[in-house]
Amino acid sequence: MVDPNDLSTTVLKARIALLATAIGGPDYTSNLDPPPYKLGDDCLACLKDLKRWFRLVDENQNRWDVAIAAAEYRILQDDLIPILIDWENKCSLAHKLNKDSYNKEYHDNIALLCVQLIVIMTCPQVLTDQSTARQVAVYSELKKRQLEYKRDILMAERGKVLRAIVRLASKVIKIDRIDRTPRDNVVLRLIINLFRNVVAIEPGELNITKKKQISTKGINSVDTLPPGVSMDDISLNTVIAAFQKNKVLGLVLTLASSMSVEFEQDFINTPLMELMFYLTKDIPPESLVGSDKRQESHNDSDRVSSTGAELLNLLDKENNLKKNVIKNTSTRHSRFGALLSIQTPDSGRLTVSGGGQNLLDDSTALNKLDSRKKWNKRSVQHRDDIVAEGLPNSLLNSGTKSGFSLDSTMMKFAHFIDDFIDSSFNTLLHSVTNQYTGDQDQMTTLEKTEYLLFFSWFVKYQREKCNKDLAADISSVDSALQETSFILVSTILRTGYELKNWAAVHAGMIAFNELLLLISSIQDPYNSDEVEFIVGKLFSDDRIQLLTSLPKTAFRYSLQYMKSCVELVHTVLETLEQYTKDNSLTVTRKTKSTKRKEITEEQVTVLMDSQGIGRDEALDLLNPSFKKMEFNFMKVLKKFCVESIVDTYINYLQRFRELNDTEIKKAIYFLHRVFVQASEQSILFRLDLIMLLKDMLAPDGVSRKSRVRKHIEQFSNYFLYKLKKRLKSSPSWYIGLLFPLLYGSEVGYFQKYGEVKPHKENNYHAVPPSRFKNIEDEEQLPESVLKDMKFGILVSTLIDDGKEELLISLISHMQVALDRFKSWLSVNVQHERETENSPDEILGSENFNGSKPFIFDKDFRTLLDLIGYSLPLNVEEQCKLPGNVEIDSLQDSLELVKKHLATPFQTPNGLPSSSYLLRPKLNASGSNAEDDGWHGDDEYDYEEPGIVPDGQQLFVTDDDAYFEELEKDMGDKLSGKETDKDKGIAKSKKKPKAKTKRSRKQKDNSSLPLHDIGEQPEKTKQRKDVLSKDFISDSEEEEDNINPLFFENEMYMRWLLDKHRGQLPEERYALFGKFSAERIANNGSLVNDYSALFGGAVPDLEDLRSSETTSDSPDRTLISLSRRVAAEIEKASEEPEPQNTHETDLSDSEVSMDDFPVSTSNADARTSPLTKRPTTDLSSSEDDNSTGHANLSRKKRKVLFADDEDDD
């Protein structure tokens, strides 16, 4: 505490005591009992002096000495409250008598000064890193004093203080807006701040520092209350009842509903938002929905106080504890002692003693032994940074919720919330959003948190109400869907994550989750431009990157933080899956291509006149700078399949006793997605998950009555079944379970998939060699040192990948080549032919036991290039060491390879050598793609257990999920495949780095055994055979070798697309395939008649060339089209009939969106090459025949925009 002998403190207290005496006091000369309050002669001046003391000392000097002194002399209870009550009584009497009271202006000024002082004395006290030692010393005492203030303001003469404050506000409201002065607007702001302060006052925190968490054992909320104050006196129920009775809630509705019309919104918008936030923050929105209906069903026995509710909770815990003791205690021998002693191999002894309950079974005895072991446990400090900047724990870090002791109070408050949403929410949120958008840099953490939680609470309330009440309208909160609101919420979330402001991140996750749920609840979202904007931004790569980063660190923080993160991830995946499945979304992204069409001024003018648009918009339409590509949900799901996110979910589920069924199910659902839908089984093969499932399914784990237990059992059964299969096929996993996964190496691939990484050698083109990243101080290093480092990086990387044999073979070849070059040089010198070079030395597959690493190994190709080898570009070219290579350089390279093969290379950054390499990616749908080696047709020891259906299908397939797109691969157009959407199309050469897509999205109409996401090897082989070298080639040099007939066919295709306005019918696609194949087969000549294709004679090539306005460079759409068509037709004739399969599902009627989606890969169904729909089982065929061809109509494709360039 503050030193009472401090001279300055003593003098200050004396000054405050004099002011308290001079303000006024009880009039003991009166005959009334109790005596009425009488103002002092200089009451107004004394109140002004007290206000100056607060500003001079507490505000300017960061001290709370005046506040403590004022509390000690009870100025608020004994002076300010009596003054306001007396003023209210006199004003009420004067109103009834219809005349003004004596000296009205003087008394009004005194009442207003009292309100100002009450606002100062009830202002929330916050401890920050800048708080002084004096403030820390008086913090706890001052918080208790404020609790007394709150009780007295709410209860003094049945809340007459609140009525007096409302009267002050009504005097300002009566004045016309045009006649109001700035002082009047400040009065309204002051009054709202007072109401906010009263609601915000709560018991102080047990811990006031995050540096060192003190022990709070034996301390409860009662110890933070002052004498004579109970939780019922200051509860939210008491506050709402007092506000309702004294017309405070009506005043709030008046101000909020007319904010932009009758009042200056800049003065009152933020205080109103904060007031509504504190009124609702501890109330679950679902508890208010339908409260009027529950009013009739509840009886008097249900109406208990908060203290009674706590007592019932404690009695319930005691009852459960007794049951647990009885269950784990033997009935007959529990009164007798017992002793069990075990001798260890090192002649030690382990002893268990105690009652019979310690020796009921082996596991109990061993657990008792383990509990007595002692070790130096590592201290881990949980990073609950939510107390930063004075945020109370109850704001975000507490799961406690306030309840209502009376249903009547809850019903009145629910009516108030409904009125507020209908009349004021949109206006208030729009005003606050605009203000914070302009002042975002000045927003404090508390303001960000208040805004986000206010946003999320009302959105959730209205969403819940619309689900239960058909008359409710979701448009009452449509301001939450505005572009400015979404941008502000997203920006706060992103900046909070970047600045590691975890309180803002926590609140941002809650708000973002509610925003996504609101979008999903709208029946026809594309009728709203705001929803379209939000969904488009949500699908951008930077947004996905942020959302995948949040759960990676969530396990370090509190349970409430993890809950919000798990909820957000669940909602994000559900929303993305819903929109990609139901609407076949395509994302339009900006490109950096500088190739532009030549546009004439006449074209621009005609388009401007016909469409009525501006010049810039016309130029964008004539020469768009966007490209369309389909959104890949599986690609996004893969980004969530990382070890750090799995760590978060396992840490989350380890506290399953603190979670409800819905929360547990969502976590299990995510693990199901990772294990089955994404086929990332290896990432879940870990001991902590096995132990977690064991604990959850133990007798004292998840209750057998819980509906979520069956889902845990089903997932556990399938998980353990797959694990046993993996252990049987790959015994190395017995060791692998003990260690983290390895990435980016041959060993990591073997650990993940149980087989050696396959090297696909039926490609035509060679892989691009790896590139070096920037090396530290590269410009300052000598050339010899830099060369040594590059050799060390490459050799070390190859060794890490287990490719020592390649290096040994390379050294052997270099040694032979070096000897031959030296011999040729000697012979040439003797014959005076020094200018002649020796023959090139060929490096072939025979040097590597038949493999071709010089074509298909990126790192090895880089090493060859660094040595001086001539790298082949395809399988037809040879890898050779030119005869004109410098012998000294070759000798140095040989020595460097030998050196780093024998001596480990130490990287400057301490990371693996591969961290200095950039490995360009190839198209993953080609034959160079990695195959996991785990197919759905391998022989099982027994039938897979499958998830038991629960009356509702969890994964709904869509047989009509096929939509046409002009930019789609032509081969897939002809074959009708839904899966190979991105196969074989080379990326634009203008891009700085060619990224390719690996789509693992499978057919939606597949019928598969549950959890089986494998792919038939025949189907894989079919993909490989269709692939052509021209679909991979991407270089300028190789285009010269392409058959000119491909360019001519491309012109014919563009002519047909222009004629049909970009919508070429399917039958003409097939006919054009035959047309192009016939031209190639006959060297440009035609045999059959194709007038049906062109609507007349075949156009002349010269006419097509003269009409072409685009570049002569091909877009590579028709390359090798004829070969692909021929291959597809040949395979169609050889393809077997599909086998009927059966798909099981899992559902829960309680959670509508928590269904476990089965993998969409197709293991058995086959696709006819030239048909649009794949053949499925008989039942689906019958349904299709019954419905005719109505389902074949094309659905509308919605184009979304995102500011991203690359197709990641």
Provide mean pLDDT, rounded. Answer: 74
Radius of gyration, rounded? 38 Å
Q: How far do the termini sit from each other?
A: 60 Å
The largest sheet is:
3 strands, mixed
Poorly predicted spans: 210-220, 294-302, 377-382, 923-1041, 1109-1122, 1136-1208
Which percent range fits the helix content?
Answer: 40-55%
Beta-strand segment tally:
11
Question: Could you characterize the architecture of this molecule?
Answer:
The protein is mainly α and 1208 residues long. Among the domains are: 125 residues, no CATH class; 148 residues, no CATH class; 71 residues. Helix content is 51%, strand content 3%. The protein has a three-stranded mixed β-sheet with strand order 6-5-11. Strand 3 and strand 4 form a beta hairpin. Helix 11 crosses helix 18, helix 17 packs across helix 18 and helix 34 runs antiparallel to helix 37. The longest helix is centred in the middle third of the chain and has 32 residues. It is extended, with a radius of gyration of 38 Å. It is found in: Nucleus.
